[in-house]
Amino acid sequence: PTTNPSETANWKTYTDEVNNFLLKYPSEWREEVRDKNNSDLDTKVVVLTPDPIELYLGQIQGVFISVVSNDENLTAREYAERVILPDQEGSVCKDIKISSDIPSHKLDNAVFIYGLCGVLPKGQRMIVSRKNYIIRLSSSFYEVDNSLINQILSTFKLTDKETSEGKFCGGIAGIICPEGYECILGGDYPDAGGKC
What we know:
This protein is mainly β. The chain has two helices and 15 strands. The protein has helices spanning about 75-85, 145-155; strands spanning about 10-15, 20-25, 30-35, 45-50, 55, 60, 60-70, 95-100, 110-115, 125-130, 135-140, 155-160, 170, 185, 195. The longest helix is centred in the middle third of the chain and has 12 residues, at about 75-85. The two termini are about 25 Å apart. The model has no long low-confidence stretch (mean pLDDT about 75).
């Protein structure tokens, strides 16, 4: 997903200060919190949904954000293969695809999952693995507008320095730093290495 920053400049921002990430969403939408204490959910889920809320077959439509523990230190791909895909077993979904190619993001450990299904058509799902937790971003809409979902997901940002600052860059492999970081080289020769 890619986005033009001017298109999202007036959007609201959902910020998770505990898990260090943010995500922008359309200004006419609202934030709904579904707490695990008030439902059968295994974790708190934040739903970014059009206002007023429209239900379809009893389901809220929107972008869903949840954070779950990652005690096994699974990568995003491992989590998708061990947790997400088994839930789809026996469903009508036939074209499920996992991709690490997320054009607008330079995240170290993230994947997109396409082709999931359920009560509502599901847009892509983004899984981001951190040291001890997994961030899950998913969407369900009666009529899926993938360009809007892509635009929302493309605004996802980690707000801590865990993944990039101080990482090796440059060198003989020409490793580049993620967007927003600069490679500070330790020399001025062709294969000099440095840190982001």
